[in-house]
Every structure is written in C-alpha cells, then in structure tokens.
Records
---
Amino acid sequence: MLGKSWFSRSCCIFALMIGCCLTVPVHGQLTARYSDGKVPTMYNYPHRDTIFIFNQQPAPKKGDLSLQYRPASTIMWEKEAPSGEWVHYKTFTNVTQSRIDTLSEGNYRTSISNILLTTPDTEDFTITEPNSSHVVTVADTVSNYEWYRFDYATAKFETTAFATFSGVNSSEMSNLDEGGYMVKVITGDKRDSLVAWICMNPGFELKLQKDNNGAVYFSDKFCDRIDFRIDASHPFVLLTFTHYNPVSGAKSLWENDMTFTANGNYVFIGKHGNQQFFRIYKPPYEDTKYTFSAKDQFGMEQQDEIMYETIIPHSVITLHLPEAKLLADGTNSNPNSAPVDVRFENKSTNATEYVWRFGDGDSLRFGGDFPPHPDTVLHIYTIPKDYSAVLLVTNEYQCKDSSSVKIKVDPSKLDVGNVFSPNGDNINDYFKPDNTSIRQFEISIYTRAGKRVYQYKGGDLRYWNGWDGRINGGKEAAEGVYYYVLRAIGWDNLDYGWKDKKNETYRSYVYLYR
C-alpha cells in the first residue's frame, strides 16, 4: 500500500493469442518481466489471455519492459500399474514446466507435446520413497522469431519486422514503448503468432479538499449527507487504452477499473459540474476521522484522511420505571399497575430544541422559544395499554433526530382470596385482594350476625395494606367466617361490582385463622 502523498504509476501488458495465417492453432506463450528479472503480477481474463501488471516505484520507463516468447506445452504424467499398463496420473496444459510433490513409489512416465515438437518428448523415471517430488521442464526449441509493431494510423500491424532472430530457442525484446506488438515464431513448417499490448498507467493521487484544520468544510455538511470534495487540482481521470482485435480488426477501449472505500465501506464518486466528490449518507453522531482509499485493478492504492466534525443531533432517552416494592402482606407490588409514574432523562447531544410526545396525547416542548430542558421529565400513565414515548430533537442547523422507548401499563385485575391468618408471622397476615390498575375501591366486612367490623374506601390500593383482622382497628377479631361486600373500578373502566350492587361475585366469605 502506498502512502497518501505518493504519485503512483504502473504498466500493464495485454497478451492476446491468435493463429497464424488462417487455421494454425495457438501453442505459444508470452511472458513479461522487470528489467531486474522479477516477475510481475499476472491476471487472466476470458476475453483476453493475459494481463501483466507492473507495480513498481518509481514507475517503469522505456527500457524496463520486456516480452519473451516460449512455446506452451501439454505435459502428461502416467504411472505404471501392477499389470504393466500405463495409467493416466495428471495432465498440465499451457505450461513450460510442471512439478508434483506427493508421488508414491513406482514407475512413472511424462510426455511433453507442443506445436514445435514433431513427436512427444518422453521421460521414464522411478520413485523409491513416498511423498517424493519430480520436476519436468520443456526443452528449448530452435526457431526463427519476427517482431512487428502496431501502426495506430492504419489500425494494422506493420508489414516489416523491426527485429528478427534466427536459430534461437527463445526471443526477448526490451526498450519497448507503449503500443501493440506481434511476434511470429517459425519452426520448420510450424508457425505461431501472438499479440501483446503495452500501456503506461500515469497513475493517480487521492487528495481531498479540507479546511485549515484538515476537516470537511462546513458548506459540505448536510443533515442527511456529507460531501467529501476531491481537490480540483487532482481530479480522478480513469486510464483508458485503445487496442484492436488482431483477427477482426475491431477497435476496443479498455478502462482501468477503480474502487473507492471510506473506512472500509464502498463509496461512489460523483460529479457536480467540474467538482468531483464522495457522498456519504446518514452522517455519524460523533466526530469521525474518515480514511478514504482509491484502488485500481492492478492493486495500486492511494489514501487520504479527513476529519468530520458532526452537526447531527442525537436523541437519547434514559428511562426510569417504577420498581417493585415489598408490600405489608409479604408480596411484591406490580410496577406496571396504573398509575405508572415514569421519569424520562434526556441524554441527547448537539440539540437545542426538544419535543416530547408521550403516546397518550400529551406532549411537552423545551428549548428555543420555550423553557430550557430540565434534567428529567415526569409523566404519569393511567390508562392500561402499551405506549411509545418519543423524543424529537432539533439543532440550530435544523437537523433532526428522534428516539423512542416503550412503556407498558397492565390491564385491571381483581382476585379475592378466601382465607388469611393475622398472627404476626408475616405470611398472609392481611386480607387484601390481589389487584392491578384499580382506580376506585371500597370494601365492608361483617360478622355472620351482620355486624360491620371493618370498612375501607379509597382510590389507590398501593397505599392500603388490607384488613389486619382487628375490629375497626381495635381489638383482634375472633377466628371464624366473615362476610364481605366489595366494589371496584379499574383504570380501564372495568366494573367490579360497583354499579351492579347485586353482583354476587363480589359478595362472599373470608376465613380468619390465627
């Protein structure tokens, strides 16, 4: 990977294999290398045989590039079976050498075939140890070589060779300029012909436009996006290269594909007029450093960093719900029983105005033309249902954000037991119905003779412990059966014998034991 301040260059070579004259098949191979002998990266494509990629700093110049022809061969490996027959083992195609590292004991034979060999070149050998290695290399073949340049003015290869070699086993050309090259290989009556295209990549530099602090200009920051402008003095211009089909003569345009990322995520380059930019939607809530990367298909990469100072408000709610409490009868209270007192804590950032919508029709506003926002907001929910409370925040740039929390208020319930034991053991010491979200409640308790020994009227059962087994709060009532009349209404307006005073469901007996 290159530093962000380097100016990169690379060179690519297209190798397209064709037949000579009309029907002669292709059996040759073109290779490329640096002037110091290193082998460049090679890419294979279905629409052209090979691209040789030169990635080097400083960039390769005239005289650094070479093309070399060698005949491509098929190498077949066979192994002798116990019956004495030769059995196919493995085949390598379009190679000049093959190697196997996991051979078992036995007799082997290799056969090399290519267009320049009249008969296959065979070799027999024996392996005496398991997991042995063996290498087969195609022998050099003496041939004549002719090199031709492509003439872009006529869109054809020149008819006169600029270099010829006779009676050699390979041919190599250096000091090549950008353009198209064809090499013809002649061995007796065998002919082969290949075409390669050399293009110089002028490279690219990634440089973003920044303010004096190395950050995004304020004018490029929006509520829904960020535009990272590319420095106008260093625009991206994709490399294009013109080449021609050596058989049909059709003209083709090749482009150096580029990919762009920001902090590892793919982004696209846009343009407005002459201004190029990267656009990112949904800006972050926090100040963020972005590392942009531009990478071409040869692996050449450039980077630049830029700071984004956020203008986006962030709506954050910390919800404080009631907690279950231990009641006098030894049970725990239901925190979702109406009325539910909810405390909302505002933890938002980068905001100046706040609107609370509690989900029950009520709302509050703070900031701007309204009072400043307190540390917390208290709201009481009474009607049993599920609520969604929303906090909408806005800042001075009119950027908005919202968040929500869920609140549940349980439906009303009344379940009356029929026995209690007020003996001070903290177990079932009080006669109190199991209840949820009850708005109004009253109960009267009588002896079997009809004498009232206890009465309670109230609107919130959370603050009533229940009957403790004493006669109107005085002395202890005797063990036995007592008769009660109960009436209640839930916060959801369910009637528990309040209006229907003849409802026997809430006229019953309770047993007192000590």
---
Amino acid sequence: MALQLFRTLASWRGGRLEATASALPRLAALAVAQVLLAWGVMALTRETGLVAAAWPGCAVLLVVLLERPRQEWPELMLASAGGIVLGSVLAEPAILRAVVLAVVGLGESLGSALWLRRGGARRPDLARPRSLLQFAVVLVLAPLASGVLAALFMAGWYGAPLAATLRTWTMAHALGLALVVPLLLALLRPDWRARLDRVGALRALGYAVLLAATCVLVFNADGQPGLFLVFPPLLLMVWRLGATGAAIGVVLVAVIGLPCTLAGHGALGLVPGLAARVQLLQIFLLVLSATMLPVAALLAAHRRLLATQRHRAREIHRQAQLLDSALSAMEQGLAAFDARGHLLAANGRYAELLDLPPALLVRGKPYLEVARHLAERGEFGPGDPGVLARERLAFSSAGRHHRLNRMRPNGRGLEITGRPLPGGGWVTTVSDMTEQLQRERLLAESEASFRLLTENSGDVVARLGLDGRFRYVSPAALRVLGWVPDALVYRVMMDFVSVEDRAWVASSFAALSLGEVEEATVTFRFQRSDESEAWLEAHARLGRSPEGTPQELVLALRDATDRKAAEAELLAAFEQMEAMAQTDGLTGLANRRRFDEMLNREYRRAMREGSSLGLVLLDADRFKLFNDRYGHAAGDDCLRQVAVAVAGAARRPGDLAARYGGEEFVLLLPNTDLNGATEVAERLRNEVLSAGLVHAGNPPLGIMTVSLGVASLAPTPDAAVDTDALLRAADAALYAAKASGRNQVATAAMAVAA
C-alpha cells in the first residue's frame, strides 16, 4: 500500500498548487505519508535522545523531488514540511523544535536533489558507478551539513549536547537515505519487473525468505556474535536481483534487526546501553548499504560489458561476411598469412591468377607448400624447388613491404605486393598486369637510355623536397596526371591535392619528413591539367643524406581512378541490396521489416517532440474470393493497383506506405492526429473505390473495396515504448470496419500514452 501511495505521488502531473484544484489530493497524500512516517518512526524506534534511529522522511521527499519537475518543488516541500511537523508534534508536542528541524530536513532534501539533478537526469541509476558515487557524496555530506545546523539549534535553544546531537542526527538521516532512496529508485525503474520475471517471482521470494530467516536467527540469538551470517543470503539477492535486491535486502535487515536490537536481543544485545546498540546497528546497516550497492553496480557493469561483447561479436561476424563478399568481388587476388606462415584467408581471384588447386587454399595451409607447388612449376626460375620455396617464405615473412612483377610461364604478367601485418604475418595482393607490362616492355624497347626506361614506367616517379615542392617529375606525369613534368617542378604539391584530402596527405608526409616513419602509402585526389581530378596512390619513401638526416621524399604515384570507381560501384551495389531487402517485391512498397523499423523510429520521435503518430491499417475486402474466382495472377495485379492507391496517400516526406502482409497494407503518418489520419483513410477508400476493379464476389457493389482501421497516439516523453498498442488499436478498428459491412473507415479511441 505504501508503495502504491508513493507511485501515485511520483506520477502526479498536476501543476502548481494555485493552478488547479486537482493537485490538492496529491499534496494531501504526500502530507499524510509524511505524518505517518514521522509519527510512526518516532513512536516505534525513538530512543531516549532527540532524533529517531532512522529518519526516512527526508529520503522520501528527496525521491519525490527527483521524480518531479522543479516548478512543482515548492508545493511538494510545503506539503512535506507540514506532514513532518504534524507527525513530530503528535509524537512529542514541541512545535518550535518540530518546525525548525523540519526546515533543516527540507534543506537537506533540497540540497541533495539539486546535487543529484545537476547533470540534467531526473532519476539517478545507482547501478552505475557515477550515480552511485554522487549518491555516496549525498549520503555523507547532506546528513552531516543538516546535522550541524540541527545540533547548533538544539544546543543553543535546549542545551542539548552538541556532539551527541550531531552524531545521532547524522547517523539517523544517513541511515534513512541509505535504506529508502535505493529502494524507491529501484522500484521506480521500469526494468526491475523484467529482472524479476527472468529470475522468477517464487525464486526471488525464496531469496527474501532465506534472508529474513537468517536475520531472525541472528538478531534473536542472544549473546551470539553472528552478524556476518547476514552477508551470504544478502549477496545472493544482489547476485540474482541486482541493485533492487541490494535495496530490498538492506531494508529487510533493518526492519528485522531494529526492533530486536531495541529489545536487547541478538548479537548486539551484548553491547551495554540502548544508544550504543542502536548506533552499532546504524553503522552495521550503513556498512551493508555501502557494500552491497557497489557490488550491485559492479555486477551490472559486468553484465553490460558481457552484452556489449556479445553485440561486438555479432557485429564482427557481420563485418566478416561483408568482407568475404568484398574479397570475392575484387579484381585483385588477395591472401593473408599469419606469423607462422599459415594461410588465414584467400579469395578466388588469388587462386585463379596463380592457377592454384583448391587443396592449397584451405585455411591453415602452410605458405611453404604453396611456394613449393609454384617452384615445381618453374614459377621462380631454375633451382631446387625446396630451396626456392624456403627463400620465398623468408622473403615474404621478413616484415618488409615489397612489390614485384612476375612473368608466369603462360605469359601472364603479375604484380605481387606484400605488406606486413601487425603482430606478424603478411598480406599479399596479386594483380593481373599483363597488358600494362606489355605496354611497358614496348615502351622500354623504344627508349635509348636506362633513364628514359625508368622515367616512362607505369608510375609517376617524383622527388619532393622537405618544403613540399617538386624537385623532379618523370615524363609519366603527362600520361597519368595530364601535366608536362616541367610545369610541376618547383611547384608545391599540396596545391594540386584536393582540399578534402590535404589533411591526411600532409600528416603522412609530415611524419616522413620528421623521420618518424621510413615509408607511407596514401591515396588522394590530384588536380589534372584540365581541372578534372584523378585518384592517385602515392607510395612515398624517405630519402636520407649520407649523415642519415631526412633529405627528400621519393614518390611513386599510381593512377587509382579505376580502382576507386570499382570500390564506388561495390558500395553502390551494397546499398542497392540493402534497399531491396526493405522493399516488397510484388507491390514495390516498403516491406514489413522496413515498416517495423520506421514505426519504432517515429514512435520515439513522437515521444521526444510530443507529437501525434497516426496509423491506418487496411485490408482488401473478400480478397480470397477474388483469388479463387480470377486466379492468383489477377490477384497480384489487384494488389498492385491497391498498392498504387496506398502509395498515393503517403504524400508527405515522412509518410510511409507498406505492405503489412497478404492483402493487408499500412500507412504510417507522423505528426497526424486521429482526425487527420481518418481523413487520409477516407480519401484512400474513395481512391480504391473509384478505381472500379471488378470483383463479383464482393457484393453489393461488385467491385474491389477496402476496409480501414485508424488509430492515433501521442506518447509522452516518459512513457514506455509500446508500438504494439498502436497496432492493436488500428487492427481492432479494422475488424470493426469489416464487421460493420466492409468498405468503410473505423477509428480507435486511444488515451495519451503515459
């Protein structure tokens, strides 16, 4: 009953006290709750001093303030203050003391609420370390600060001992916060029922009964120091129920332990003096709270970490599948080997270009066997195949970037590039360079000197000073870049690099110029002489002086435009496949999967913006009879024509027309109330009716008609996401329309989601 009362207070949506009379019952309920708490605690647990052993009133007010907007705080604090004063006076008639101490307690709750709300969130989650640390600060400083004020007042006005009053007040209020705040925050969280369902209500009750039985035994066993026996069942509750279990468990220990201790029973009965026993019990309960809540937070963090790891594992698996698809579509052959020289992965193009049997491309196959197979075919020239294979293995696994051209015995020219992998191993790419090598060979035969031979290779060779200016550019620049070499010499290279790419190109070249790396490869866009842009792959290596200081950069620039175009085509194909996966093949409308995604997204948008979300669910009347009479091909054509009408009703950019299943269609209408959605539905019904699709099995009109169910919902920001409620309402309205004779629109009345 108390929890129901607190939920009523926390869910109060009234304005300020003077705004509406409907707020008065809520404020009265809060005041009554504070009267009962103040009077009950002081009557049952008050010791001979001036403050109760545990004071929950400030904790209750703190949670209410955390749950409500700040503009409602004055009325809540006034109602709470009145209740605390009245309850205190009923327990002990001292009006001045009750008023002053109530004001001090309100200051404690207000300061704590301001501290916990300073990040913007209303309800702190004590299962998270940051919120728990903030609450720990409140638990220590708030009772201490209010205790100083209370002790000064009691000492100055009543002559009470300053230190004793401060100690008693601080311990009682700290214990009240430690017991009440975690419990109420845990019960107000929407996920505690889900955890209870996962654990099982009977099993959770069993944990509580076990803890209660242990507490009864410990706190009634006179002269037996067995407080440590409380920890195992309490830890079991924390393990199974999380922060909720910790909060409930500590409160259960307090409820059983406090009356037994006041009566002089249990492990603390050995301590002489009622005040000393109560203080030791307070310390014990605070230690329990300070122990169990961090344990619950750590367990929650561990569970979140496990969930994140599982999500990452699924994402890695998905990316691996995408990578396999990309590798299969590559024009280049690719193979990766680990540090031991065992095959990790290879695509089909690699086997095709090297003419390798499938048995050599099994995961885990040693590279030495691949190299020996190639050597036995004469791929590496004359010599012992075993020796040649070991030489190739040593060369490939040396941890250096390498690129070489090889002419196979069948006349195919290959470019083989190797790059080391982090942690050992390497990746090899094989490109079919037959045509390019033939052109280079023909070009080389026409050259008169070795210099011209190198300068007319497929790549543009350039020397770049540390100031970023070209010192030398090979004649290949005219073919690759469209620039005469002399037009580039002494020009700043960055002036030709696309603005979007300058940052990472400059970063890579800066690392080379400073000697941080010896070589780097970057891909960027370069402005040609006709002002068009070409993609270049630049392999840069640092040239050093005889003394070892950085002197210049040697660049090999390769035209990567075709490769980039292929990558763009691959990306476009992937995006097209993604779009196809969200489209109904028969009607061209969005499919059920796309609709479910958009419904969830628009529902959350409506929650954030406080707008309405309309839904129209429609069904082709007596469609099975249409199929039976005219055949499935005609039925498909009928569904397409209905889909055209449905698509035409989705006029705004945010509207979504989808096929819901079979002959059912759905319209999702953001920012649309029930009247607007009904108007759209009626227009759609008339559109189908005016199409005049012959349907002899649909009397009395003898043409195809549709029945439509309309629903609209305006979810509030603090409501739970419940898209099924909107679907159920629209579905119920649809069935009402069909039951009323079909060819009509029915609406569903829904309350604002709370």
---
Amino acid sequence: MKNFFKITGLSILALGLAACGGTKEPDKGTEKETASEPTIQVVASFYPMYDFTRNVVGNEGTVELLMPAGTDSHDYEPSAKDMAKIQEADVFVYNNENMEMWIPAIQSTLKDGDVTVVKATEGMVLLPGNEDHDHDHDHEHEEGHSHELDPHVWLAPSLAIKQVASIRDQLSAAYPEKKAAFEKNAAAYLEKLQSLDDSYRSAFENAKQKHFVTQHAAFGYLALEYGLTQVPIAGLSPNEEPSAARIAELKHFVEDTGIKTIYFEENAKDSIAKTLASEAGVELAVLNPLEGLTQEQMDNGEDYISIMEQNREALMLTTAQANEKEVETETEKEKTVYNGYFDDADVQDRSLSDWEGQWQSVYPYLKDGTLDQVFDYKAKQNKSMTAKEYKAYYTTGYQTDVAEITITGDTMAFTFDDGTTKKANYQYAGKKILDYQAGNRGVRYLFESKDNDAAFKYIQFSDHSIAPTDSHHFHLYFGNESQEKLLTEMDHWPTFYPTDLSGLEIAQEMLAH
C-alpha cells in the first residue's frame, strides 16, 4: 500500500503539470492504479507468525517472512537489509519481545517508517521463563519489573487460536475497509486450528505417560494446555548448555521413570540430547519447535498445522505407552524467604518507608476479568481447584473498598471507591511471625495511628520480605478493633500494586511470582 500511495502521489503531480501545459487527456495509468483496491505489504518475524498472518491476510496483501528458512530465531539479529524491509512494509507482525528480543531496539525504525506493529501475544499473560525463579530477590535491576518470560505460545494449538484472533483484530483495526475479508479468512483458518486443538485434547486426555524429555524448554505451554509435563534438558534457548550435574540428574530421571524416548530438534544443537539418549539407552524422536522451517519443508508444502500434527504423533510415542514407573509428581515449593521459609533470627524491623509510594487495589482487575488468565493458569498448574474456584478464593481475599493508598513518610492516605480520602499518621508497633498450617511462615509488620479521624487505627503489612527493602506489592490487613484481632485474619488480604502498572502488567507479575 505504501508503494501505491507513492505511485499515486507522483501520478497526481504529473496530472497537475500536464494541466498547466493545456493537456486535458487523463493519465490512463493513474486511472488504473486508483481504481483498484490497494493491497497491504506485511512482514512477519519468523515462521509461525508468517503462517498465521498469511492465513488472515489472504488476497488482501502480501506477507513476507523476515527470517530466512532454517534460521535459529534465538540467534537472529536483523541486518541493515532486514531493517529496510521492515521499514518499507505497511505492517510488521511479531510474537513477543521475549522471543524477538531485538524489537525494543528498532522502535524508532518502526516509528520513522510509519509501520503498523502487530504483537501476536497482545493481551496474553505469559508463563515465567525460568522454572527456578528465585522470588527472594532485589527488583532494582529489573526495569519495569520485567521477568524472563516463556515466549513459545504458538506451540499450544489452543493458544495459537488466540494469537490468530489477535492478529485478525489488530489488522482489522488498522484497515477497517478490509475487516470483512480478514474475518472471513481467519474464520476458515481458525476452524482448522480448532480441529488441531481437538485432536491434541483427544490424544492426550488419557495419556498413559505424561512426562516427556525435550532438548530445550520450548513446550511448556503445550504441556500445560494438554495436561502433560515437560522435562527440559536445557532452558528456553536451544543453545543453552546444561551443566554436567543436570545431565546426570536427567539420566537418573529417565532411568527411574522408565521413559523410552527423548525428543530433539532438527534445527538446533542436538548433540547433548543424543548423548543423553545414548547413555540412558533410549530412543530419539523429533519434536519441532517451529521456530524456523527448512527451505525443503516449505518447498514440500509443510506448514504450522502439518508440523504440529507430526509433533502430536511424536509425543504419542511417549504418551500412548503404558509405563509402570510413571508417577504423578508435584512440584515441591522452593524453600525461600519469599515462600515463607526462614529463621526467627533473620527477621528484622522495618519502617513505613519500605512501602512508600502510590498503590492501587487489584480487586477491580479481578472484577473486570483481567486476572482470569492467572486463575486459568493456576488451575492447570495445580489441579486442586478449578479456575472458577480460584477466582472465588481470590475474590474473598482481594475484596475491599479501598481503591488507592498513598504512603509518604509516616502518613498513609486511603482513597475509597466513593472518591473520599482519609489521611493519618502511623507509628511502627512491632512485628509478628505467624506459623501456617502448610508448614511455611509469614511476617506481619504492625503500625498504629492515634489520629481520631484515621480510617483505620490498626494496620498490618505482609509482602513476603522479612528485612528492610522497598516493597513491590503487599497484602494489607486493617481495622479498628485490635492488632490481635487482625492477626487472626487469614482469608481476607486486600492486595496492592504500584499505580503505574496496568492490569495486564499486574497479572503478569502475579504469574511470575
């Protein structure tokens, strides 16, 4: 479409010059150009984004794949030629900054080129990328409270459906005159993806063996969505080298659990997977992360759906085989301070300045559905409650009419849902260690106000920290009866995050922790 407007502009200029010369005959080439519906030029970052987008765009434009066939998307950096290609496009489609980590560096290029940017994971909450994420940490080095997140959303057909719908909606918003075509194209493709999703659910709903060992941690979403358990040799990047201890641990795991197949990738370093399979005496099979198809695969007409069908069949080499050693495993909670494991001697006094700032209640985001993705993920990770039950549990916990809190010095200002604000001074009144039935512990930091017009005389903070540090979110217990009464409250814990975070950012923070 950019070329269309460039040609049209030049043609109009030519018409003006011709008119000045007394020529009345119209430019036939211009008439032909303006009479046709302009198409859009789209560049998609890597293969799944390309395949999703071309099935939405159809004949309404051209879709070009940015990364060359067979390229490892984790190692890719755009060249000057690639940058020019992006800037010349009308639309650029990508997955997520945690995959295409070079996206933030090209924002000025996208802006200068007036490129419509489509993020396929827009509005989606991602899984934490590091399963060993330590929650007892200093966030100061994490700009915007960012975390390493797992970007491999497309490998679960159920989530690929959401990505295609997001691409459709963003393109329709940018080109409303093409909305009907985009919706028609997407509907046909979504029907195929729904069939793929159904086939995955049917294949794995009664899996005889749920654990599968992969070359790198690309299949977390697939595992979570279909009730399986991924056991990765390495981390999110296929080039990440596992330690010798990790290899030894996995060898014992494979032997102890009776796993007969280890999955490797054709487009990445596979020597470690092959070595592990050889040492453990098991078979190898391909599980394709679809980060880049080879030219031969593309020439043979392979696409997202056909490769995912192959992945399904490959996984069934494991899931369809009865295994007497297969056991249901539960992830043991890491015994960190954040999770409530500490010694009394480590607990220190804290001042109100640890919670200084402007804070918002998360309760409105629970009510409007923003946090529903969090509850859905929790239900899939821990089947002790359904998503609906999790939401009911957190509804009781988060419920409050305190909309915002501003803490400055020794002063706390409570703003309520009706718009009224009450301000009072608070003094530190000590700390209390609580022992929970689950075996972990918590610390409440107590404050009291002697102001007659204070909204709450007694306040207790809990934020998973046990020593002076800037808080990044907290649970707040408040009342006017006594500190002792508040210490018995276990079901109701209004929770507050910084006011500069959006609801989606808060949901992402919750899942990361």
---
Amino acid sequence: MKRFLVPLILTMPATSWADDFYSAFPVTAATVFSQGAMVSQMAQVQVPEGTHDIFLPMTRSTLGGAPKFAVAGATPISVSFVEGLPVDAKLFWTDAQTAAHDAVEDARQKIVDHRAEFSTLAGQRDGLDAQFKFLNQITPNGKDAVPSLEQLQGIATYLPQALAENRAARGALEPKLIEGQKKLADLEEELARAERELTKLGLPDWNSLVARVTVANDNDPTVQVFFEGFTHQANWQMQYDATLDETASQITLDRRAMVSQYTGTAWIDADITLSSAEPFQRLQPTVPNRDVVQLLKEKQAFPRTVSKSNIRLQAESLNADVQESAVFAGAAAPAPVSGNFNGIEVTYDIPNPTTIFGSNESAEQINLTSITLDAEVDRYASPRRDQTAFVRAISTNETGEPILPGQATFYRGDTLIGQGHMPAITNGAEETLYFGPEKTLPLEVRFLSELKGDKGIFVSSNTRQEELEFEVHNIGPDAQSVTVAYALPITVNEDVEVDVSANPKPDTTDVDGVKGRSEWTLNLNPGEKQIVKINVDITWPDGQTIHWQP
C-alpha cells in the first residue's frame, strides 16, 4: 500500500538504526505537456528488518511545485535532501548508465592498447628510416669512405643487399601502419559514439542532490519508493505531413509527436503519455469592479515662472506619473505562452515503453496513426494581390478527435509544396487548407479609368470615378472551377457616397460578414479567359479629401 509523505521531513520516535542503502531512481512514467511534464520515478530496494535510510538521486528541476513521495513495503518515517553526499556516484547508476559508462571505459582502453601496438610499429619504421638514411650516406668519397680496396669491395657487395632488405622491410611495414591509423580512427569514433550515448543517459555525480528516505521495515524485504514531481524542462509538439489527393478528394495527415526533455537524465523505457492540457491554468475568473463614468478635469498648467519650488513640483508630478504607470504595468497579466490549444485537450497514451534522452540536442519522434479527411477541392483567387490562383481544400473534421495545431509540410500528391501551420480543428468543425499556387490559372488586374479631378491617390475634387477589370485565364489542360474574391470599396462615413457596379455581378457579397468582400464562381474550360469589370463612383463634400486606393 502506498503511503504519501509530506515533502521534506516527517518525524517519528527514534528506533533502532541499521545500514544505509543506495539505489538508482529511474523515471518509469511521464505525462508530457506542451510546456512541462509530470514525472514518476520508482526504486526497489532489498531491505532487512529495522529502520534504514534509502538514498536516491534526484533531478533538481522536478522539485518545484509540490513533489510527492510514497513508500510500499515499509513504514515511511521522513524524507530529507542531502547535497554532496560523500559516496561513490556509481551507487546511483541504472544498469543502462553502468553499461554506457563501461562502454566508454572499454573504448578508451582499446585506444590505449592500440596506441601501444602502433608505437611499436612506428618505432620499427623509425629504425628502418634511420638505417636507410645511413646506408645511403655510405660513399667512397664521403666521410664514411673506407681506407682499403678490400673494405670497399665488401661494402659494394653488402650495400645493395642491405638496401634491398631495408626497402622490403619498410614495404611490409607500411600497410600495417596504414591499417593501424585506420583502426585508431575507428576506435576514436567508437569512443565518440559511446560518449554520446553516455551523455544522452546522463550520470549522477558525487555532488548531485540526493533524497534520504527513512523507512521502518517490519518483515517485507522488498521496499519500493515512489516519487512524482513536475518539471518545466520538457515539452512536445505535433508535426504533420498533409497530403492532398485531388482524385479521391481527401487529405491524409501523417502525424508525429516530437518530444523533448532536457533534465540531464534520460527516461529509459518509460510509459509516456502526451497531453494537450495546460497544467497551470487560472483557477478563478476575474471579478468585475465598478464601471464609473466621470468627467475629465481640465489640465492645470504650471506657472510660467521658473523657481525651485516649481521645479520640485514638476519633478514630483513626473515621478508620480511614472510610479503610477509602473504599478499599472506590474499588475498587468503576463502574455500567454505558446501551446494554447483553445480549449482542445487530447491525451495520447504511447503503447510501447519509450526512451527520451535528457539533452536538448534533438527531439524524439513518436509516430501516431494517420487520419484522413474528406475534402471539397477547388481553386481560390485574389487577383488584387496574387498573380495566380491557389488550390483550396475545404474539409470537416469527422475523425472523432480534435486535430491539434502544429507545423506541417504540405504535398499535392507526391509533389512537395511547402511548409506552414496546421490550425487546431475541433471535432465536427470545418476548416480551409491551402496547397500552394495553381500556376495554370494566372490572374491580371487592369485599371482603365481616367480620374475626374486631381489624379493620384489623394484627390482634392469631390468626385472620383474608377473603372477596372480583372481577368482569370485557364492555360491548363483541364476545366477549372475558381472562386475569385475581390474587396469592393465601401464607406463608413455618411457624407461619402460610394456606388459600385460589377459585370457580372458577384455570386456572394459580404463574405464571412466582411462588408464589401465579394466572390465570383467562374468555370473555365481549357484555354478560356473570363473578365469581370468593376465601376466605382465616389462623391464627397467640397473642400474635403479622401484617401482610397483601388
């Protein structure tokens, strides 16, 4: 039965004391949020009867908030923390950490042994090089010349053979030296890999923070210690490959969760849960205060005469203004951090034990099941700002689960289009996604009118007329349906009159509640052009100006 302890120390009457025990304290489970993670750790120690201290390595980042300990198999007495415990840090290593450390030491020893062997070969090479140099220096007229003909004849007989033997020995040694250098490079790479793996796992050192859990054991030799704490040094985010299949009118979302934690200690074969919940939300609403309408007092000017009292008065007033602003700014709520899913909360339980290394060098990828959305696919064009139409897919999320926001790579079939953002889509909601330009549908806008009055954006007369047209051209081999959007001018001033006519008339006006935003649905055969003409008449009071750009 688990018994949760108050963090830090619970005291009980003193009992008989026995040995101290040391154990690794691996992470067994973690619920990872967009910012932070709730981490669970467990140690199992064989403990005889009596009262004992169990020492466990801790990760400092998990001790914020309200960490909790629990003990099974014994009676908990107290929990305290010790820093710089003078014991061998290996006592706190997991099997994986021990194996990784041994791999590093083994790789280092291999390099030491190989360098000793290589030094022997290098010494042989240096000796042969010295011998070769000496033999080449023996000449009849040099400093090593012999005084007699018999000695010269002897050297003449010996020297070619000695040089030949030297060259043969050097030739036989050279491949061994090359192979030795290659083997040394391989061993150094093996050591680098082993050191990287050890760095990923992380190692408690002698100066690590250690929890001392005091327990009283009656008869059960197996004692389990549990810990649960929150760390801010973890996160996860969703990434997508969004592929549009126009033939099937479907969007396939291949999903992967990118999980990172940088606590310095790896989570080895842990049970991982991914959650979109926000663990530290506001607990209560804002209670409204009075809403008072007041007349503003007229500003009082300071005397024009300059005196010490006036300078002091102005300085105090300025200081009061600054202090008031500072208090107001300090009371303002902080800006919201990223990861707000707009109320969407999803939990993914990863079915297999998962390892998340403890450095921030890279995220671990966990593949999730793909989902498919039915879509209505057409083309959308905004000729005032764009040069081509774009591929549009309108889809309703009927998967039974929310789609979380995240970075996405967009494809049309096998063609990479680009990267963008996948919005949050609640279950049952409709969303519009775009899959890049449709280059077979170029757009063009032409301004045909002559202004009545002053030309240009700023007009000083009281009448302005504008005539323009936009054209959509289908240069592709297939018929296309295009929704063309254009913002027709409007006025928010009752003294300004705006008359707009379009031929053909728009199929939809004030789209999405935006006044003036109009849409035409154009069906174009291959090679066909369609043109929409727009006439604008604007009238305003004499003596005033307008600012408008078509």
